[in-house]
Amino acid sequence: MKKLFLFLLITPYLVFAGITGKISGRVIDAKTREPIPSVNIVIEGTSLGTATHIDGFYVINNVPPGIYTLVVSAIGYEKKIIKNVKVSADFTTKVNIELSEEAVELQTIVVEAQSPLIREDLTSTQATIDAGQIEALPVESIHQILSLQAGITQGVGGELHIRGGRTNEIAYAVNGVTISNPFDNSPMVEIATNAVQEISVVSGTFNAEYGNALSGVVNTITKEGTNEYRGHISFYTGDFLSTRKNIFFNVDDINPMSNNVTELTFSGPIPFLNNKLNFFLSARNEDNKGWLFGVREHNPWDSVYINPSNPNDIRIAKSGDDAIVPMNPSRKFSGTFKLTIKPTSTIKINYDLLYSNNYFKSYTHDFKYNPDADYNYYEKGYINSLDFRHALSSRTF
């Protein structure tokens, strides 16, 4: 038994980064300023909650990132509802509460929580972007979100640099599990923005929990299923347009359906299980024809003949059909699936499946008249992860 317990203490090094936060504070009497014990504090819509200790302090652990509503109640005191309590991964949200004695029956008091201007528990330079901010930003990918953050610059090829470091010095994680490609440290999978609950970017002086990183750490937390069915689908399309036809060949051939994006999300509970099993599904498909074109005058198998007696006599076969061909197209698909199991109020199990499949070409002027000979690039990745969390009680020790 001792060996097994020692093994369990050693294995947490496999966890890359925190994916939950916590809510803590103190409940006091609004008139006497004395602590109130045994106050029930519940996160609305979840099974998470706690009661205050004899000194009025409370802590709710393992809270997924998001914005919540606290319901506070105690015998002899008015019921209070605190809205817009924001929780971020790896941080503690302080919510101190004052309750007034209930002499007569009163209506429930609703309070709006205020986010602190300065995080007292922040020991590094970190930016946190939640789902609400992402929805308001004019972005289509996590890459674009990161490029907007302070201290991050974008190179000529679109690569990201944190505080001047190399692009392969950034570590990437999803739900606390590393997804960095061991060859170049780039992300092994792409995740659609509609599946993101929170993104945290740590740039410099990060904690010991982060490894294999020099410039910064990017930790993405995906959404979980809720107790209510929710879905969203969107489709948009368009084309590239420019007046510089002398530079961008065929750019004046407008096709509104040449570039299109379809996004889908659906979540909710599995029926007949009393909200103990929830799911979240998201998918994003992008088909982009690009804005750079070539002419198929030649095919890859065409031959070149040079007269040995007259080197200036060069004959190139032209078997092409002179069709106009896109030379920087891309097709991208990304999907996520999360299954959340809550067999008891203290146990939570998450299964995550991440998948992406990309195809693209990079324009090369050498192949403008032989476009089919240009390089094709394919990227495919998928990650399975299982996360088990058990909130231990004081009786455990």
Topology diagram in text:
Elements: H1 2-10, E1 21-29, E2 40-43, E3 49-51, E4 57-63, E5 66-73, E6 80-87, E7 92-94, E8 97-99, E9 109-112, E10 126-130, H2 131-136, H3 142-147, E11 152-154, E12 160-162, E13 170-174, E14 177-178, E15 196-202, E16 216-222, E17 230-238, E18 259-269, E19 277-288, E20 293-295, E21 304-306, E22 314-316, E23 324-326, E24 330-341, E25 347-360, E26 377-390
Parallel strand pairs: 1-7, 1-8, 6-9, 13-16
Antiparallel strand pairs: 1-4, 2-3, 2-5, 5-6, 10-15, 11-12, 13-14, 15-16, 17-18, 18-19, 19-24, 20-23, 21-22, 24-25, 25-26
Main features:
5-stranded mixed β-sheet, Ferric Hydroxamate Uptake Protein, Chain A, domain 1, 397 residues, disordered N terminus, 3 helices, Immunoglobulin-like, mainly beta, 6-stranded antiparallel β-sheet
TL;DR of this structure?
It contains three helices and 26 strands. The protein is mainly β.
In total, the number of domains comes to 3
User: Helix count?
Assistant: 3
Structural class: mainly beta
The level of helicity is: under 10%
Distance N to C terminus: 16 Å
- H/E element sequence: HEEEEEEEEEEHHEEEEEEEEEEEEEEEE
Query: Unreliable runs, pLDDT <50, ≥5 residues?
Result: 1-15
What kind of sheet is the major sheet? 6 strands, antiparallel
Radius of gyration: 28 Å
Annotation, overall tally of beta strands: 26
Strand content: 35-45%
- The spatial strand order of the largest sheet comes to 17-18-19-24-25-26
Shape field: elongated
Quote the average pLDDT. Answer: 84
